[in-house]
Task: structure prediction
Amino acid sequence: MVWTAVAAALLVLCGGVAWSLTRFEARREALTAPPADLMIQPGVSAAEVEAVKDGLRAADRYFRSALGRGVDERVEVRLARERGCRWPMSATGPATAWAESHFLCVNTMSPTWREVMAGDPAAARSIVAHEHVHNLQGQVGCRRSSDEHEWLWLFEGMAVHLAYQAMVAEGRWKDEEALSQIRRWGVDDPQLGALSAYERTGAGAGDPAYALFHLATRSLVQQAQGPSSLLAFCREVARGRPWREAFAGAFGLSVDSFYARFEQERQRVVGRR
Result:
């Protein structure tokens, strides 16, 4: 009986610890467009909350005008300050933000977030818009886990490109300045490989890789029928079509043909100062 009581006490104690570790203490604020529930931890500033709201709304407006649809199912958006969005993660990162189909996390103590909030609030909004693209990809059905990627450069490139264009549509950035940003992010980094090397891995290369993915997706959209081709591709992949077939159907050329054209364009961009 004694051991039974001790075991029961330990179970209660462990359960209490687990509840404490996994609980995300935050106040809730609901949005209708897009449908989202903001979970805001103490210490997150009003300016940060507005940046997140603005990023979500800008993305939603652009999705619906350029793609014909947005994120229709509710998303839980956590603004982490005291602890990470999920245990055992930290509010300092490593990721500044990340997303799933119905979940979006912003680590407001991460160095990148704090830097952009201090110097370029539009960049903070674009981070949120970027992650909201991943919400959209997930709800359409083409989001992949990190070990399932076959078209990583386009998965992330879609998020960077659409987020940038959402900022353009809001008048915060200019479309003609996209190449300048791409160069600042390091698209000319000699450590970068050919675009074809980033089908399964490579996002860990940081800003230079994302600059490459942005340039490639921007080029692809310009060659195809505008940004709606990205959604068409995503839908075909979601239906189970092999990604290379879906690519050819959505963009009007084969993956290999695009790679060949793009590497030529990339050299012109890298060489132009």
User: Anything to note?
Assistant: The CA atoms of residues 26 and 42 lie 7 Å apart.
